[in-house]
Amino acid sequence: MAKLLRNDNVLRLIILVVLIIGFGLVTDGVTYSRQGLTNILLQASVTGIAAVGQAFVILTGGIDLSMYGVGVLASVLGAATMTRVMSA
To answer: Measured between alpha carbons, how far is residue 44 from residues 38, 47, 61, 63, 79 in Å?
Structure first.
């Protein structure tokens, strides 16, 4: 058991399970509902698709991390646009 707990992945899995149970208790079980799980999966899908695409690029040796730069640029432009639209 001690050897199992020394493994980083097992420790992360335990922390994840504790967090899921904790959020379920805090939200009165809404997290465990079909709609709650669908919402979580939809929100995580964009990051997951980008991660899979980036993994292929990194695995083939063409390390290209420009995706994050484009994301930051889009965030800054979106925030600038929203503040100008809201204040006008």
So the answer is: 10, 6, 26, 23, 21
**How many percent of the chain have pLDDT more than 70?**
90
Express each pLDDT in 48-80 by its tens digit.
888 888 788 778 877 666 777 777 888 888 888
Closest CA to 24 of 33, 15, 34: 33
**Do residues 40 and 34 lie in contact, with contact meaning Cβ atoms separated by under 8 Å?**
no
φ and ψ at 58, to 5 degrees? Answer: -70, -40
3-class DSSP state of 67: helix
Name the 3-class secondary structure at 65: coil
DSSP 30: G
Q: Are 64 and 57 in contact (CB under 8 A)?
A: yes
